[in-house]
Design goal:
homodimer; 3-stranded antiparallel sheet; 12 strands; alpha/beta; globular; 12 helices; about 20% strand; 5-stranded mixed sheet; about 325 residues
Chain lengths: ~325, ~325
């Protein structure tokens, strides 16, 4: 589940999707409504699966800080949640063991096991959307750090004194390269007298936010402000990537999230030369692959399945 | 061994130092002279050890990119070395297995096993001196990444377009917070008309570089430019620390290198609040210890012993 939508799949332990359900969520109506939506989605994919198949668990990736042991969602700003006992409620309603992880961490896990990171030993996942999150795989296993607080790559400061970030600091990469940051820059540009068709496209499509599809349309129409703003974001994503490669030296960095799903190479392409330029060890820099995620909206659900298998030891 | 000096110890497998030898090196005279110095230092500490003790290996930390398998030093800019077969030469001269690692990596390993990092599971080492280097311990083991190129924390860009770094980029933390960067800022300040006693102190002590002892004396005499320059370095070290904590979430960050050895808390103290302020998860931020290295110039030699034990499986 993300901030605005939900993908439920019924999957085998090996990651084969046998049923699927996708829908918008209603976070504005409160946690109970969203949890009811999750329960209904789970029931739907269970109903669509051959009755001979037995379900072992419901595994969820939630957009926030979660606790694997208790199934608690401590804080999910994009949902407006605080201390929601998601796992407990799902177990009660569905009679299945519930396993709750972080959305970006399970996305990384999905891409590592079934997607663009297959075969690597060390991997970094960078997910760009409303926010900017990441996941780290070390020695084939998700890396969570000493307090479960690792991989908060979105709050790496790349421009001291730069734009304000939701976390309270300034100049975090999330405040420089997320879709939210790009929308802010577009609106600032327009307010300052720059011409742009972005707001027009949003109005025509009744979008209150600058979604990936709006960005795609503006780029197709060669909107100069949009091109400038996305180049700036790509520059900072290149710096972020190089910093992570210089510290973690993974075999592969997988880029996911709404912008990559929609724009693919058009978004990732310009990030690569900036990153390569800032790698410290250039001798075999090309051996580090910077690639788009493969599984689209299945990365999260399939990663949640992997997490569930790890927790249950199956 | 560092860029200018060499500490040799005879140590037990458990890290007890039984003999020691310290001296300045002569990198300007070429690799063979320095290698002869290492061989003599090793012979000295062997001679000073009870003859009943048997030596199993000579373990070295070299200031540059090294290869654990071949004992080759690929590149050590502070020594002016390129492709020096250090391990091979030591084995031939001493009749002992030689194990060659990177100085900062073995320093991290030493502090982890016998110093300030004891008991941690995940640790980061930050060493500030002529350059700025680091080491990473994950799950109790040194982390080297996919190409052995991990932990290059000195080339994290913290100020895009900032001062030029030896690596060819701009705004790396090494170009903002190393002793070399501080000396550059002092000289620039003085050239621009600022008053400072730093050059005077260097002259009086016949130092061509602004060593840690020069910095200490200037601070003791409340040199305003020195205070400004060191504050700036501390600010960037705080940002670097926070970025590493947000990504790696270790239990402890150990600060070592000449400046910490000389100034201790006076240097580390002001780094802490900047780092804590930029931690994303502040709830249990104080549980992450930011501490000075304990072993002083023994961190490297004892870490090299640990590395040797790991390689030899003893």
């Amino acid at each position: 589940m993300g901030g605005t939508s939900l993908t439920a799949v019924a999957a085998s332990e090996a990651g084969h999707v046998v049923a699927e359900s996708r829908q918008k969520t209603k976070p504005q109506d409160g946690p109970d409504v969203v949890i009811e939506q999750i329960i209904e989605a789970a029931r739907r994919v269970i109903d669509r699966t051959e009755s001979s198949k037995k379900f072992q668990a419901i595994c969820v990736g939630a957009p926030g800080a979660t606790d694997l042991n208790s199934g608690m969602v401590y804080k999910a700003p994009n949902l407006g949640w605080e201390n929601v006992p998601l796992g407990q409620k799902l177990e009660k309603a569905l009679g299945l063991k519930a396993i709750v992880g972080n959305d970006v961490n399970v996305g990384t896990l999905g891409e590592f096991h079934f997607g663009a990171g297959q075969g690597a030993r060390h991997m970094v996942g960078i997910f760009v959307g409303t926010g900017l999150g990441g996941g780290i795989i070390i020695d084939g296993k998700p890396y969570h750090g000493s307090r479960g607080a690792a991989a908060e790559i979105g709050h790496t400061i790349l421009l001291p004194g730069g734009p304000a970030c939701g976390c309270g600091q300034r100049g975090c990469v999330e405040a420089l390269a997320s879709r939210t940051a790009m929308e802010r820059d577009i609106r600032t540009g327009i307010a300052g007298g720059r011409k742009s068709i972005v707001l027009e496209i949003m109005k025509r499509e009744s979008r209150s936010r600058m979604t990936s599809s709006v960005i795609e349309k503006a780029l197709k129409r060669k909107d100069a402000l949009m091109q400038e703003v996305i180049s700036r974001a790509q520059y900072y994503l290149g710096l972020l990537t190089a910093g992570l490669v210089n510290v973690l030296d993974p075999e592969v960095v997988v880029f996911g999230g709404g912008l990559i799903e929609r724009l693919g190479e058009q978004f990732l392409g310009p990030i690569r030369p900036v990153a390569y330029q800032h790698f410290l060890r250039k001798d075999n820099a090309q051996s580090i692959r910077l690639v788009p995620a493969k599984l689209k909206n299945h990365a999260g659900p399939l990663g949640a399945v992997v997490l569930g298998r790890q927790v249950l030891g199956i």
